[in-house]
Write a structure and sequence with these properties.
The protein has helices at about 60-70, 90-100, 120-125, 145-160, 170-185, and strands spanning about 5-10, 30-40, 45-55, 80, 135. The protein has one domain (about 5-180). It has five helices and five strands; from the N terminus they run E-E-E-H-E-H-H-E-H-H. Helix 1 (about 60-70) runs parallel beside helix 2 and helix 2 runs parallel beside helix 3. The two termini are about 30 Å apart. Helix content is about 30%, strand content about 20%. The strands form two sheets. The protein has a three-stranded antiparallel sheet with strand order 1-2-3, sandwiched between helices. The protein is an alpha+beta fold.
């Protein structure tokens, strides 16, 4: 989740009274943005790992996935669901997946040859079901099918929409506190209700 804004309202809210809802100041000071990389466990409904920081590079994603793997080093298979963002099909992630394989793999040169030649060749390699870590990419324009998007909606509704953050550090702290609170009090598997029927006639 990129571009999470640390917004500080210039005036405090006017509290609710009988017959009147809270009134919120529309002017704000923007202190910058943060990026959240989160891993949602569909079996438990918890966030297994959350990384909040300034950049959103392919190295950040690969480091996050590396930490996720370290949590379950004895697992024989890892399945990750991601949308088609360019960092999800990066050289760094391909190298991480290749390093998990028992036999060395010749990756080629980025932009020139082999598996690293293009985003298409990299995504095909990452989606290979024979690898120890398999990435399942959602179809284009269908990232809503990934359950982490449901969780991002919860984060927006419960924390970000009405939040007041005096700095990017305050925003980062509040997000990580919310993740801990969510895991402790609200985490449960989501019930997927879509039956596969066409959404329109």
């Amino acid at each position: 989740m990129t571009g999470i804004q640390a917004l500080e309202r210039t005036m405090p809210d006017i509290p609710m009274k009988p017959g009147r809802c809270v009134k919120r100041e529309f002017e704000y000071i923007r202190h910058g943005t943060q990026t959240l990389i989160a891993s949602f466990n569909v079996a438990t409904g918890a966030i297994d790992l959350a990384t909040v920081g300034d950049p959103r590079t392919e190295q950040d994603l690969a480091a996050h996935v590396g930490k996720l793997i370290e949590q379950s080093p004895d697992a024989t298979k890892y399945h990750l669901v991601m949308d088609c963002l360019n960092t999800h099909q990066s050289e760094a992630l391909v190298r991480l997946v290749a390093n998990l394989e028992p036999v060395p793999i010749e990756l080629g040169c980025k932009g020139k040859s082999g598996i690293l030649h293009s985003m298409i060749t990299r995504s095909e390699f990452l989606a290979d079901p024979t690898h120890r870590l398999v990435v399942h990419f959602t179809p284009k324009h269908c990232s809503w099918m990934n359950q982490i998007e449901i969780w991002f909606g919860i984060l927006v509704r419960k924390l970000l929409r009405r939040g007041n953050f005096t700095s990017t550090e305050a925003l980062k702290t509040r997000i990580l506190e919310f993740v801990e609170y969510f895991n402790r009090t609200m985490a449960k598997p989501f019930q997927w209700t879509y039956k596969g029927k066409p959404l329109c006639n």
